């Protein structure tokens, strides 16, 4: 595959340029670029090795309702602006049909794109970038993945339809940010799946470090679900976690193994840690305060300066909170220093987990302002 060209099949309206309410960019006055699309596409064109192919549906182009001249004026100015910063498309594929015509060339159908499926291109590592369900479906039909620009309007936002759920495996990245698209294409995907089965627990986990703060968590321990949902929301990661443990014995094994698997998933997803910030710290919570010092430096240590008076918060024994952090630090190969105090112990624990979330969010952030993917260590390895 090394000698085969990867392709970005890029949608136009709603992706490179903003789509007006009437869904037709048929005048210069309507031409507005998607935020940061120009600057990030310029970096993609300059720094990354992708062939750029524009694929767009333009309903009724060439008819009285959408004259060719109107399209050409907008398209010409758009390409002139893009070209001025080094963005040159290798090919353009425009379908002119209306939806009811069922044209084999209309997205998500790929009649216009069959020449790219002759084995000469690295389709497996190519992407479709677009804002509609048809772009995701087209990626499936081509045999690659989609980068879905989700602004909450076309695919349902947080209320994702069953159709989108069925296509989830074809969405490599869901975002509304061109900076995130560039970051993803430059650094790669940071996801990890894990399964751990012992005589004490059965755990399934799916982690996406570049997610949208979505959680689906069932540990069998209500308060642990709650604080992990807080962690997910405030860190911006996506986390699916199911724990079936021997709760008839006690909560220990479920908490410990969940933390181990989560930590190990972080280690796997971070990979060689190129470009990450590595360090971070945080956070207050009402009358309580929590300070989290974090270093994904490859060494493991937990410094714990928290004490509890209550035996349990909800159904979670407070003695297991420290154990959770110890197990996570071991799995994630990180240093964690946790200090917290306050009057309400529920708030203290929430502050600790929110602080961990914000620390993780900062520490795993990748600096796209740098051209090189530097390892954050003088040793050259983390």
The CATH homologous superfamily of the largest domain: HAD superfamily/HAD-like
Q: State the strand order across the main sheet.
A: 3-2-1-4-5-6
Mean pLDDT: 91
Distance between the termini: 29 Å
Decide which structural class fits the backbone: alpha/beta
CATH architecture of the largest domain: 3-Layer(aba) Sandwich
CATH topology of the largest domain: Rossmann fold
* Low-confidence sequence ranges: 154-160
For the report, how would you describe the main beta sheet? 6 strands, parallel
CATH class of the largest domain: Alpha Beta
What is the H-and-E element order? EHEHEEHEHEHEEEHEHEEEEEHEH
Beta strands, count: 16
Q: What Rg do the Cα atoms give?
A: 24 Å
Shape: elongated
Count of spatially separate domains = 2
Beta-strand percentage? 15-25%
Q: In which range does the helix fraction lie?
A: 25-40%
Number of helices: 9
Any chance you could write out the topology, listing elements then pairs?
Blueprint: E1 6-10, H1 37-47, E2 50-57, H2 68-83, E3 91-95, E4 127-130, H3 133-142, E5 145-149, H4 162-166, E6 171-175, H5 178-187, E7 191-197, E8 201-208, E9 215-218, H6 222-235, E10 238-245, H7 252-270, E11 279-285, E12 288-295, E13 301-305, E14 312-313, E15 316-317, H8 319-332, E16 335-341, H9 345-363
Parallel strand pairs: 1-2, 1-4, 2-3, 4-5, 5-6, 9-10, 13-16
Antiparallel strand pairs: 7-8, 8-10, 11-12, 12-16, 14-15
């Amino acid at each position: 595959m090394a000698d085969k060209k990867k392709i970005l099949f890029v949608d136009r309206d709603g992706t490179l340029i903003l789509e007006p309410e009437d869904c037709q960019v048929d005048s210069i006055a309507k031409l507005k670029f998607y935020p940061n699309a120009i600057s990030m596409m310029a970096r993609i064109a300059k720094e990354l090795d992708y062939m750029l192919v524009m694929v767009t549906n333009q309903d009724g182009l060439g008819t009285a309702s959408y004259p060719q001249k109107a399209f050409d004026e907008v398209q010409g100015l758009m390409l002139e602006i893009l070209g001025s910063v080094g963005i040159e498309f290798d090919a353009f594929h425009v379908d002119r049909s209306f939806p009811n015509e069922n044209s084999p060339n209309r997205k998500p159908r790929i009649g216009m794109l069959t020449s790219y499926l002759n084995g000469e291109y690295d389709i497996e590592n190519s992407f479709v970038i677009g804002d509609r369900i048809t772009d995701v479906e087209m990626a499936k039909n081509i045999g690659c993945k989609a980068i879905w620009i989700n602004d909450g309007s076309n695919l349902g936002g947080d209320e994702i339809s069953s159709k989108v759920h069925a296509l989830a495996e074809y969405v490599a990245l869901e975002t509304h940010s061109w900076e995130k698209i560039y970051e993803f294409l430059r650094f790669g995907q940071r996801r990890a799946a894990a399964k751990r089965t012992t005589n004490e627990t059965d755990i399934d986990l799916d982690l996406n470090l570049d997610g949208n703060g979505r959680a689906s968590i069932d540990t069998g321990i209500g308060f642990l679900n709650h604080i992990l949902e807080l962690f997910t929301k405030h860190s911006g990661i996506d986390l699916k976690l199911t724990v079936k443990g021997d709760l008839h014995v006690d909560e220990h094994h479920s908490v410990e193994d969940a933390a181990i698997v989560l930590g190990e998933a972080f280690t796997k997803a971070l990979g060689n840690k190129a470009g990450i910030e590595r360090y971070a710290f945080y956070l207050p919570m009402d009358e309580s305060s929590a300070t989290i010092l974090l270093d994904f430096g490859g060494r493991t240590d937990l410094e714990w300066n928290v004490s509890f008076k209550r035996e349990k918060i909800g159904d979670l024994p407070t003695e297991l909170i420290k154990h959770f952090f110890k197990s996570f630090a071991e799995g994630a190969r990180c240093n964690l220093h946790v200090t917290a105090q306050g009057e309400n112990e529920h708030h203290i624990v929430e502050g600790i987990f929110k602080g961990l979330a914000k620390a993780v969010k900062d520490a795993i952030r990748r600096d796209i302002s740098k051209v090189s993917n530097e390892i954050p260590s003088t040793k050259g390895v983390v």
